[in-house]
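Budget justification, computational time. The allocation requested in the original proposal was used primarily to generate structure tokens for proteins on the priority list. As evidence of use, we reproduce two of the resulting records. The first is shown immediately below.
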Amino acid sequence: MHSWRVLILPYIDGAALYDAYDFSEPWDGPNNRELIVHIPQSFVFPGDAINPAGITNYLAVLGSETVWPGGEGSSFKAVAEPSKTIMIVENRGAGIHWTEPRDLRFATMSLNLAENPSNGISSKFTRAGVACVDGSIRGIPKDTQPETIRSLLTVTRTDNVDDERIIEWPNGRELR
């Protein structure tokens, strides 16, 4: 198995790195381990220097209720509100290599953004960044309630939570 971050390389100006990746070996096999230090800037916080350890700040949230249920992905039609359903989250502290096929688990992740958890959505900025199913990049305030976060991560939204807190990016970002 290989990380979604490796699989999207040809679409984010990473074709040469994609071509250098050996899909016949595991993500941490001899050849692929050498590529970890070549982490694309797209996988680290804006403004940060490239981390030579190859640690990413962008993770998917995996679980049967999410866009990433395991096996095959969700269809666009299955998502109740694509502009308010989170697909990718910022993370600070999980220590996951960008080539590693590991992300956050919905069932065990922290939904309390105020704690800036390493096992949840966390950021160095005042609003944690997320990518939604419709392709929009949005920000979520740190004081957003866990039940709102839970709802934003699920594809079938039937609850009435304060999802107006997920906003489009203003110009620039403020550090935490």
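The second record produced under the same allocation is shown here.
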Amino acid sequence: MKRKQKGFSLIELLIVVAIILIIAAIALPKLIGARNTASQANAAATMRSINTALTMFNTSYPGFPASIGVLGGPSPCTPSVTTACALDDSIAQTVKFGTYNNYTWTYTQTTTPAGFTLVASPAASNGAVRSYFLDQGGTIHYADGAVATALSPALGN
């Protein structure tokens, strides 16, 4: 009398593992691309938020701040020239020190003309290829594969 086998044979398990690996190989590039697109969209949105905060600061206290950190403030926040309360403090402090959302941020106050420049470049491990540039004109510029400058095509406000 033959004994009934219970369970799966080795070949059946290998076929299932192979199918899973094929599906993963197809899905992984799409996942990485979606992550890079989301990171770029977040950088552009952060750039717009900082632009709004800088415009509010310039309206309230003529001129632009020496540092992005001035745009935030601890909660509860009382607006002043040193804590404008125009931007979430966690973003203001993180961007002030250079890295936020896998982007390296560089803010510079300019005196001639009175204004600023803000550049967001992808960090080495980011995988995103788009850099962003903003100045006192308020238009966000971008460049693919290079550091953005004022001459790059505009995204718009």
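A brief technical remark on that second record: The radius of gyration is 24 Å.
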